[in-house]
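Let us work through a complete example step by step.
Step 1: write down the sequence.
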Amino acid sequence: MEGIKANNFVVVGRVGMDLFPANGVATEDADNFTADMGGSSANIAAGIVKLGGKAALVTCVSDDAVGRFCRNKLAHYGVDATYVKSVGGEARNSLALYESRVQGHQSVIYRNGAADFEMTVADVEAVDYSRFGALVTAGTVFAAEPSRTAAFRAFELARAAGLPVIFDVDYRPYSWPSAEVAEEVLSRAAAMSDVIVGNDEEFGFMAGGIEKGLDKARELAASTATIVVYKMGAEGAITISAEGEMRTGIYTVEALKPTGAGDSFMAGMLSSLAAGLDLKTAVLRGSACAAIVVAKPGCAPAMPYPADLDKFLAAHAGPTDVT
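Step 2: predict the structure and record it as tokens.
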């Protein structure tokens, strides 16, 4: 896990466009939308860079105005786009419309013929893994071919280069051909990963029932993974490692929206581990980053810089009690 301390990550997965109306406004009632960068992997990469690390994205974007928008946003957030390839034909960048409200929140995701699913084995084999300290990806990269085979090849190449593999389960049913395929593929990816982050529903899904999720997390920590973070929403998280199980709470805020928390959590946790902080502190700082993002509009633009995180922690007495 020393690779994480290099604070230089190769991140595999999608970048897309986010559109969101003004705070509290329903999509169907909106006249104006703000556009910014989206996509789990791109958001994680942006969060890492904003917190002082380095990140390069490996993905495909459509060879059109939306693809160029995504490239411009990657540059804006300081994410290395060396390994971002433009693809033509009918492939289109993913698009997410979501609202800045919790009551009646609606998210509409457009993923048909997504450009990022066009990533090939050749694309990931073109990456110089020796440049990086660790690989990060999110589960949607495995949802379709040729991206699925390419992502597994990236795992193999990263491990061969000595990089730890960090996996956010990030199960999105609408991206998959069937639940059965998703269960098998995500379980395979988890078994190849050193750090696994997912919520109770995602671990339960891989285990065949939500009541079996925690046992699945424990099984992975006991066999192949070094760190497993089992998130439980408002109930906090259970982190399992060689040091045992650790329960942590969350930082309570007045949420503006439910989106972006997981990506920000991952960026905050990894950045904290890279800084040499202990695992509990890293998880709690990840939780603080998640709280910051759900309280602001947007995902990538809402992710904190170090000064924002320090200010937030100073203003909050601590996470919720889990004893």
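Step 3: interpret the result. The chain has a mean pLDDT of 96.
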